[in-house]
Amino acid sequence: MSDHxxxxxxxxxxxxxxxxxxxxxxxxxLLYASALVGPGSExxxxxxxxxxxxxxxxxxxxxxxxxxxxQKEAILAALQYEVPASFYNYPIEINxxxxxxxxxxxxxxxxxxxxxxxxxxxxxxxxxxxxxxLAELSGGAIYRDDIVELTTAHExxxxxxxxxxxxxxxxxxxxxxxxxxxxxxxGFVGDELGSSLVASRLVRDVMSLCFLIERRYAPxxxxxxxxxxxxxxxxxxxxxxxxxxNTSEWRVRxxxxxxxxxxxxxxxxxxxxxxxxxxxxxxxxxxxFSVIGGGRFAEALVSEIxxxxxxxxxxxxxxxIDQISDNTDFRAISERFQAAxxxxxxLRAFFDRLGNERDQ
Length: 360
Known about the structure:
Blueprint: H1 7-26, E1 32-36, E2 61-64, H2 72-80, E3 86-87, E4 90-91, E5 98-100, H3 102-110, H4 116-119, H5 123-127, H6 131-138, E6 141-145, H7 149-156, H8 162-179, H9 182-188, H10 192-213, H11 221-228, H12 234-246, H13 250-271, E7 282-284, E8 287-291, H14 294-302, H15 308-314, H16 321-324, H17 328-331, H18 333-341, H19 346-357
Parallel strand pairs: 2-5
Antiparallel strand pairs: 1-2, 1-6, 3-4, 7-8
């Protein structure tokens, strides 16, 4: 459709002119929350007219108190009664309406016990949440919240706690430190394809670091570049990253990365989380390859972490779930595992075991 209405706006209208009037008439004393959160390009504000071909339309999630769960069918009945053919020319699919509780929905999406959501998440729990999931659960829009729980959960996930933030930034700097010299080394022996593959990984890592420094959750690959362009640093950083990505010559690639590294190193210093670090690139030992030395930034950040378990895990260097794998199914493993088995967060057990092994 040419006159595309952003999904967040359409869903707000749907709440105001369809959901709220019907529930008010049928269930006057019901306390509930109405919101657009969870999966969907519209939740992150990236939907276009192309998004309308599937899983898109006027919709909200309705959250009720645990004590009112027996009214779920009555709520659905009120919304399904004499449903009009369309709303703002978009078909209404009430059968896809979700009526749930905040602990149940957020707990299942995160793969944690529903009660833990409000009792307090541990720092290690955060390592099992993909940034895409966190963006979905802290983004979107809340249209009404009589029960307050939704606003509380929504705000509690606004961004990582400080120690987790430090840990994740350190893990990305560590990744850069491990591979920054590999890109020119491959090019030096005439392997331009191999050099460009490593460069692509480094571009992603630098971009990931920029998201973390600016305290923004990075979305999954479809919207990664789109969201990056919204960062404050993007106008300065993009020309260098695009040159590193698009050139066919490793020396040009190396020069582009040198400039990108210096920018992100300066961004690190501006956070004032560690003592200022040298932002100039230097040769990798006696080899003619310019590197920033990502490992020293990682070490500086880890030294500022207070949580003992995160300090132990930092010794392994691989970070949270987003640094471990970019596989979509794996990054949703906690939610999928819970749905299939009823058990909670297998990744938490993995991290706990690693931390405990450091004590032995």
